[in-house]
Amino acid sequence: MTDTVAQRNFDESYTGGGAPWVIDEPQPAVVALERDGGIGGRVLDAGCGTGEHTLLLARRGHDVLGVDFAPHAVERATELARSRGVDAHFRVADAFDLDRELGAGGNDGDPGAPFDTILDSALFHVFEPADQRRYADVLHRITRPGAVVHVLALAESEDPGFGPRISDAAVRDAFADGWTIEELTSNRYRAVARGGDAEALGVPSGTVVDLPAWLARIRRD
Ligand SMILES: C[S@@+](CC[C@H](N)C(=O)[O-])C[C@H]1O[C@@H](n2cnc3c(N)ncnc32)[C@H](O)[C@@H]1O
Q: Which CATH number fits domain 4-11+25-220: 3.90.180.10, 3.40.50.150, 3.40.50.300, 3.30.499.10?
């Protein structure tokens, strides 16, 4: 079930440039996660955007699929993979349809379900609470028992910031059934502040900022 307005808005954010999350490199939190052994088995990068994390993980030898419901994001990710010479797989897919779309495996050589690791960098936080729970249910259906979901999400904070900021309770609530929250700690999400976002932070437009975030490690029971 796709929210078509959201899909169109996200898709357009990839045609004009200037999306705050497009930083042309992987998130430092994800680089550290991979370096510290947090990624294993068959991996899904959900809401992959321009694919920096899929590319990072593919380059590091992981069996990874990047999916996003914005066709222009997947186009840019595919082009980046080509220009950087990385063998990486991407598909246009809605996070709420992943069990239907990936359940039987990819039909063009990419890995399908079940997955051992889900990487969610700044996807979970864009959903309303009911959709966050629905999304967690979908992830449950496409992962093996013992699989791990990593959620990196912008955090509610007294510090100025921008974007959809969530409480740690939102993560705990969505993954209450069938999951164990093994770790939920403060981290940072790197973004580019422009226009009103930059004004809110009191920095020049175009400044790269590290915003308060949660990093959760959630294990499927
Ligand atoms: C804030 S961006 C984060 C992109 C990337 N993961 C990163 O950290 O740079 C959120 C991404 O999720 C995608 N997205 C939002 N809702 C989605 C859905 N229902 N299914 C699949 N992708 C979705 C958007 O198109 C966008 O690329």
A: 3.40.50.150
